[in-house]
Specification:
Layout: H1 13-48, H2 53-80, H3 93-108, H4 112-120, E1 132-133, H5 136-149, H6 151-155, E2 157-161, E3 165-171, E4 194-200, E5 202-206, E6 209-210, H7 212-216, H8 222-244, E7 259-261, E8 270-274, H9 288-296, H10 299-302, E9 306-309, H11 311-317, E10 329-330, E11 340-341, E12 344-348, E13 362-365, H12 367-370, E14 371-376, E15 380-384, E16 392-404, E17 410-414
Parallel strand pairs: 2-14, 7-8, 8-17, 9-12
Antiparallel strand pairs: 1-15, 3-4, 5-16, 6-16, 9-13, 10-11, 11-12, 13-17, 14-16, 15-16
Amino acid sequence: MTLNNPEPAPETKMGTGGEIAEAFDDFMHAFESFKDANEERLGQIESRMAADVVTEEKMNRINRAVDEQKRHIDTLILKNQRPALGGSTTNGIAQIEHKQGFDSYLRGGQENGLRQLEGKALSAGSDPDGGYLVPEDLADEIGKRLSAVSPIRSIASVRQVSASIYKKPFASTGPAVGWVGETEVRPETATPSLAELQFPTMELYAMPAATPTLLEDAAVDLDSWIVEEVETAFAEQEGAAFVNGDGVNKPTGFLSAPIVDESSWSWGNLGYVATGADGALAASDGADVLIDTIYALKAGYRQNANFVMNRKTQAELRKLKDADGNYLWQAPASAGMNAMLMGFPVVEAEDMPDISTDSTAIAFGDFRRSYLVVDRSGVRILRDPYSAKPYVLFYITKRVGGGIQDFDGIKLVKFGTA
């Protein structure tokens, strides 16, 4: 709402696009102000061996403003990517019936339509205690929204399965291959060393509540309401598990793997490069550890690699410059794109640890090849009008697993001396 337009207009992608452009301009102005303040701070350090307290506070305040502007842009882009649901006329008859039955179940608890449909489909979970499958387009939309909101899912491999566990054989010694002439006898190759990786799917749930008035309002699109209610809850739980999950009733996070110094790397461990300073970057040439980490990764992985860190760590790296005085952290070229660090995209994952003694606050790697997210097909919903009267609770579940599938494709930066 603006002063020139006191009545809120219907939201459109064009209108939101204008907001995104304006927010991106504000972000770039804030980043330029940050660079000016940091130059002032560096000048004071060079001339007086220490920065003025007022200058430090000014730079930190602007640094926080840059993060806030970036978060605002991300929110607007997410809103702009949200397509309308429920208006498709291209669905088959069965899908339309499912959608109508699903709407009746949400609004009034009428189960007959869904029970008959799932009975025809021989669904094993068509009883009220197990809930009902949401329509296929709604399940797909939840998956798309999670890909946009969940940082690790957005860069990892995602595989959909129908079983409760996904097993994948992996040649930890690499494939057995060789060169041979057209008419030559094929020599025997070495037996590959195979490891079986298992990715069990665990139940992820959200429980939004609705008022009877909301459910009775025919103008309310309940499909969109469900997606909006569960996307953040699912993404937050997934994000924490994909980073730090211990594998007990949740996926196994990549930071849960054993870590070893990169010089001693072996399969089953993640290699790290130490900064050489306790809980900090090295006092001089602090960016060298980033260079070492980049080149600790094999060339085949570097082509699609990303830096992963939280906002606080990114704020610290934003101050770094190379020998020519250029900032290593570069603002996104346009709204919706990632910031770049030394030529590689930066993915913000708030569940990454802060910089502290011996923390692995920065990850770098090709997560598409190295981390696997396993989704069991189908999202279920159970309507509960009794537990929290007068509100109606919706118990929404999906099954998700995850873990490392290639231990050679992710390297960590350890903020410690060894």
